[in-house]
Design a protein that fits this description.
single chain, 231 residues, alpha/beta, Rossmann fold, 6-stranded parallel β-sheet, 10 helices, 6 strands, globular
Length: 231
Amino acid sequence: MKSPLLLVPGHLTDAAMWAHQTRHLADIADMTVADVPDSRSMAAMAKAILAKAPARFALAGLSMGGYIAFEIMRQAPARVERLALLDTMAAGNNAAQIERRIKFMDMIRNGRFEDVLAEFTPLLVHPARVQDKVLMDEIGRMARRVGAQAALDQQQAMLDRPDSRPDLARIACPTLVLCGRQDALTPLAAHEEMAAGIKGAKLVVIEDCGHMSTMEKPEAATAVMRYWLQT
């Protein structure tokens, strides 16, 4: 019998960021990509996702999806059988993140969503992949599907998110912590901190990869997730 697996997208992304995983893990997992609701609250996002989730499930979140995963763990830890935190962080916003979020929110309010995408999307990938038209076009299409208003709401939710480091020791399920070596938004040190704080957590680093590990190095990310699901 396949185990339920709930996949939570990140900021300005949708099910397309999990496309390789949903195709290639279907033999071992009954997967659902969470529909992240429009909200300015991480707690409200998690509550809405939990309302539609199976009674028990494996949970994987990337970037903002990881922040939502921490909220799910606070609200319903007994429902999560295993946890994967990809290219995310437990710590609250640092000064640079606060400045960038406020800047992007102001730009969106002033009708400059495309300028936000032009500045933000290159940060999502390894520098060598910025000229990869296929990858960058797919990231851009996802962002435009999410849209300016949802982007604004998500930035506010991320700006207000709590520091999840005090909760790490309470995570008791098998946990994978995965990141791209060159993740510029949530660096390796943040993942080392999470892995150290969660008992028994396994840290995996994907080489030559930025923030969007499931799309930049899909085969590697899927292989690691398969191992996580089967152990």
